């Protein structure tokens, strides 16, 4: 099984992804997003000129220049319930397809770090001084710095919103680096039909709607340990809630590069008033229609919520969302690939 580079857009890949919605939702959004650098690779285990899509296949979006942010998304037909030959065994052909992608990635050049992320590299170096240990059996405490530490290992890639079966395949192949955050943290992917979303709630008189601006980005970055660059955040669709009197942002969310509900946040003094739900509903209603539409005409949106995050789960359920699969953000070492698809 070979891996092929696809152009943006690739009609055959778009057809394959559409036919597997909502399971393929991350790649459907990511392959359409305008935030694409010269270092991006859209890959699939069938050629763009193939006469049809094979029964078993895998596809990926990789852009190493985005690090330390998410660099890689993978989807395979084997993720769809009922595709594998037995409920206890992942499809062998889809396994080979995933490994073929990873083998190919191990051969690709690593682009230079974007100048905006050079300060992140310095934070990673400081983290190394404080935690010099690495390798099997090591787990770094979850901090903003530990999310950046893998910058010191150029072959380590951040794999985002990854289906638990694919994470297991990477783990079986020895690719997952467990010392970095992610492997221990389960997220539930909530799926939303855009037509089922509730109407957006009116805001209190002292508040107003708006888009997030450049001057608002520092507060967004300060409210999360997950690395998000200003240039990426400003490339995303966003919804903000502002105090009219002070022109101060008090709640916000973005539609991520893969279309997921990203950095949904309400400042403490405004919580418990339904604002988070209103913000989430508004961004989906305004920006999700038409982007991920399945063969039956249903438009889909999604959000990834850490298991146990009761507040965010409550918001998603109040929007009609249903947890559909378990996903992870993990760091994998693609240098350890190269001949995985040839394994018996």
UniProtKB/TrEMBL annotation:
GO terms for molecular function: acyltransferase activity, transferring groups other than amino-acyl groups. Residues 238-329 form the GCN5-related N-acetyltransferase Rv2170-like domain. InterPro entries: Acyl-CoA_N-acyltransferase (IPR053225), Acyl_CoA_acyltransferase (IPR016181), GCN5-like_dom (IPR013653). It comes from the Eukaryota. It holds the Pfam family FR47. This is GCN5-related N-acetyltransferase Rv2170-like domain-containing protein.
């Amino acid at each position: 099984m070979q891996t092929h580079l696809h152009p943006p857009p690739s009609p055959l890949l778009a057809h394959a992804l559409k036919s597997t919605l909502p399971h393929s939702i991350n790649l459907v959004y990511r392959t359409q997003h305008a935030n694409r650098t010269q270092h991006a690779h859209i890959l699939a285990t069938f050629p763009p000129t193939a006469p049809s899509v094979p029964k078993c296949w895998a596809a990926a979006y990789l852009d190493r220049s985005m690090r330390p942010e998410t660099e890689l998304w993978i989807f395979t037909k084997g993720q769809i319930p009922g595709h594998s030959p037995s409920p206890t065994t992942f499809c062998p052909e889809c396994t080979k397809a995933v490994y073929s992608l990873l083998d190919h990635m191990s051969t690709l050049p690593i682009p230079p770090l974007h100048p905006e992320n050079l300060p992140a590299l310095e934070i990673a170096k400081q983290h190394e001084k404080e935690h010099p240990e690495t390798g099997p059996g090591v787990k770094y405490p979850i901090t903003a710095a530990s999310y950046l530490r893998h910058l010191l290992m150029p072959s380590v890639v951040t794999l985002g919103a990854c289906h638990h079966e694919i994470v297991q395949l990477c783990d079986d192949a020895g690719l997952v680096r467990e010392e970095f955050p992610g492997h221990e943290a389960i997220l539930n992917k909530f799926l939303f039909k855009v037509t089922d979303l509730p109407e957006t709630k009116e805001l209190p008189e002292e508040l107003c709607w708006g888009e997030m601006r450049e001057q608002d980005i520092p507060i967004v970055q300060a409210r999360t340990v997950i690395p998000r660059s200003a240039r990426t955040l400003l490339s995303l669709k966003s919804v903000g809630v502002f105090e009219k009197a002070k022109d101060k942002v008090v709640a916000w969310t973005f539609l991520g590069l893969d279309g997921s509900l990203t950095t949904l946040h309400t400042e403490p003094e405004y919580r418990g008033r339904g604002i988070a739900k209103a913000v989430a509903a508004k961004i989906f209603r305004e920006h999700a229609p038409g982007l991920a539409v399945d063969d039956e005409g249903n438009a889909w949106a999604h959000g990834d919520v850490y298991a146990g995050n009761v507040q965010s789960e409550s918001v998603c359920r109040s929007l009609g969302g249903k947890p559909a699969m378990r996903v992870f953000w993990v760091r994998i070492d693609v240098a350890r690939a190269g001949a995985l698809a040839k394994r018996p």
